[in-house]
Design a protein that fits this description.
The structure is a single chain. The chain is mainly beta and 233 residues long. It is 3% helix and 28% strand. The chain is built from one helix and 15 strands; from the N terminus they run αβββββββββββββββ. The strands form six sheets. A four-stranded antiparallel beta sheet has the order 3-4-7-6, with no helix packed on it. Strands 8-9-11 form a three-stranded antiparallel beta sheet, with no helix packed on it. Strands 1-2 form a two-stranded antiparallel ribbon. Strand 14 and strand 15 form a beta hairpin. The chain is elongated.
Length: 233
């Protein structure tokens, strides 16, 4: 089971009812402190009862972020359940706070785009993307929970500029011929392969730059439908 039970006391998020036993706590996939007789969620994990539970350190960004100022992007009601001078701990349902769901094979994947500060001017470059994976059959019967993605720490900016990214759709897997703009949008049968190329538009501001894309998906305003363009690229 992913996550960490070695959590300092002031960052522990209660799991289960007040008088829960160690056996019942373990069945929930949570951690049990025998000295305090307390049950608490694993930190930085996807819980068996369908929650994101993760922490953000103030030093995860440069300059450091005010942990008490963090919220889920465009979701002011989704703020940390615990804050200290240097850490914020979030816990919310995978169905809440604007989380998006996509299904790939027998896996259900829930994702929250990013966090932001209440006032973007405090740290406009701060971004954190988190993702939970469960077996498609049931959240409570999930057998292989994946750890959350690490915080994306923006590198120190040494120059200002604009980088343009372009996306082209190839006619086949050889990527030697592409559909022209006047042929778009395309109408294709479901489950038919689409050969998509994403690259830095030329001329590139720096020839040493490279673009790495891991996941790419599109979704409408509803969070209940996602079209996966690229997975684990």
């Amino acid at each position: 089971l992913s996550g960490n039970c070695d959590t300092q006391r002031d960052l522990q998020v209660d799991c289960g009812h007040e008088r829960i036993t160690s056996v019942a706590c373990d069945q929930l996939g949570c951690c049990y402190d025998t000295q305090a007789s307390a049950c608490y969620y694993r930190l930085n994990a996807c819980s068996l009862d369908g929650h994101f539970v993760f922490s953000v350190e103030a030093t995860d960004t440069d300059p450091p972020v005010d942990s008490s100022s963090l919220i889920v992007k465009d979701q002011p009601e989704c703020f940390p359940v615990i804050t200290t001078t240097d850490t914020a701990v979030f816990k919310f349902s995978v169905m809440d706070c604007g989380a998006k769901m996509k299904i790939i094979g027998d896996m259900m994947i829930y994702e929250v785009e990013q966090l932001q500060t209440k006032t973007l001017a405090q740290n406009p470059s701060f971004s954190l993307q988190i993702q939970c994976e469960y077996e498609n059959s049931s959240l409570k019967l999930a057998a292989d929970l994946q750890s959350l993605y690490a915080a994306t720490k923006a590198p120190t900016m040494v120059a200002l500029g604009t980088i343009k990214v372009q996306m082209r759709i190839a006619t086949d897997a050889s990527f030697t011929s592409f559909f022209s703009e006047d042929q778009l949008p395309l109408r294709l049968p479901l489950r038919e392969a689409v050969y998509v190329e994403v690259s830095i538009a030329q001329p590139s501001p720096d020839p040493t730059l490279s673009l790495r894309v891991q996941d790419c998906f599109a979704y409408p305003a509803s969070r209940h439908s996602v079209w996966t363009l690229l997975y684990d690229g």
